[in-house]
Amino acid sequence: MSKLQTLTPNSIKNIIYSDMFTDFSRHVNTGELNTKTNEEAVKQSVRNLLMTNHYERLFHPEIGSGLTGMLFENFTPVTHKRCENYIKEVFDKFEPRADLVGLQISPNIDGNAIAITVHFKIKNLGTQTSLQLLLERTR
Asked: Tens of pLDDT along 62-76?
């Protein structure tokens, strides 16, 4: 979980992107929903998009990446390329606030998991950041 941010009138001017925490936690003093801003908001959005499967969101079957389906494939160079294409597609279609810079995909064949590191640049902020995901079997 990210650290909570206290918003002041001066810091509000610097906020370009904002989103709420996915657990809907509330601020202790004000009772308002806690928010993530700028880099953390975009990271949360990218993580959600990559971890969502197609047909998981009601009325929007096109949203998602299909990465979790790759866990049950034999990891070959073709599978590696498909994972790259899924990630690029998410950035091209669903995340207009960021540009993909690079990515690393490392399979753990024995553990039936895939470690993914995505490097991207956030538009309008000029900052480059990275996001690490571990796709693994849940059952």
From this structure: 998 989 888 888 888
Query: What three-state secondary structure class fits 87?
Result: helix
- Amino acid type, 10: N
Domain boundaries, the chain: 9-136
Instruction: Pick the range with the lowest mean pLDDT from 9-13, 47-51, 55-59, 120-124.
Output: 9-13
Element (H, E) at 39: helix 39-51
CB 132 within 8 A of CB 115: yes
Determine the Cα angle at 51 with ends 46 and 55, to 5°: 110
Tell me how far apart the alpha carbons of residues 99 and 1 are, in angstroms, rounded to a whole number: 24
Domain 9-136 fold is Nuclear Transport Factor 2; Chain: A, (3.10.450)
Tens-place pLDDT, residues 34-46: 677 778 888 988 9
| Residue corresponding to tokens 């024995």 | 110
**Rounded distance between C-alpha atoms, residue 91 and residue 12, angstroms:** 27
Best CA proximity match to 124, nearest among 88, 95, 98:
98
